[in-house]
Amino acid sequence: MAKKKKSLRGRPRLQTNRFGRWIDAKGMSREQVADRLGVTRPYIDRLCRGASSPNLTLAVMIEDLTKGTVRPRDWVTKAARTR
Questions:
Q1: CA Rg, the chain, in Å?
Q2: Closest CA to 58 of 28, 37, 41, 79
Q3: Which residues contact 63 (CB under 8 A, 6 or more apart)?
Q4: Local confidence pLDDT in tens for the 83 residues of the chain
Q5: Domains identified in the chain and CATH numbers
Q6: Are the beta carbons of 37 and 62 closer than 8 angstroms?
Q7: What global pTM score does this model have?
Q8: What SS3 state is found at 28?
Q9: CA dist 83 → 28, 62, 68, 79 (Å)
């Protein structure tokens, strides 16, 4: 018999960036990530949606947490990189 996939609480996530995909792939909750980084869960949600960008210190902490998967330069907009 096939196992039923565990459903997530709340509304479905409409879009996510590399950081959000990393969190989901690791099976971590955004609350756990927020606790490890010392920020709030709503702020992690905004980061994952791309509605906010972290400061340089937090971007480096995210890089350490993700073991280099999400780099500080990933938070810089493409327009800013081409200048």
A1: 14
A2: 37
A3: 70, 71, 72
A4: 556 555 556 666 567 899 999 999 999 999 999 999 999 999 999 999 889 999 999 999 999 999 999 999 998 875 565 66
A5: 18-81 (1.10.260)
A6: yes
A7: 0.77
A8: coil
A9: 36, 25, 25, 7
Token pair recorded at residue 31: 């609350």
* C-alpha–C-alpha distance, residues 67 and 69, integer Å: 6
- The token pair at 29 is 């909750």
Q: Which residue has the tokens 């980061």?
A: 47
Please check whether residue 19 is in contact with residue 47, taking contact to mean a CB–CB distance below 8 angstroms. yes
Q: Report d(CA 3, CA 56) in Å as an integer.
A: 42
In 49-72, which positions are buried (b, 16+ CB within 10 angstroms) versus exposed (e)? eeeeebeeebbebbbebbeeebeb
pLDDT of residue 41: 96
pLDDT at 32: 96
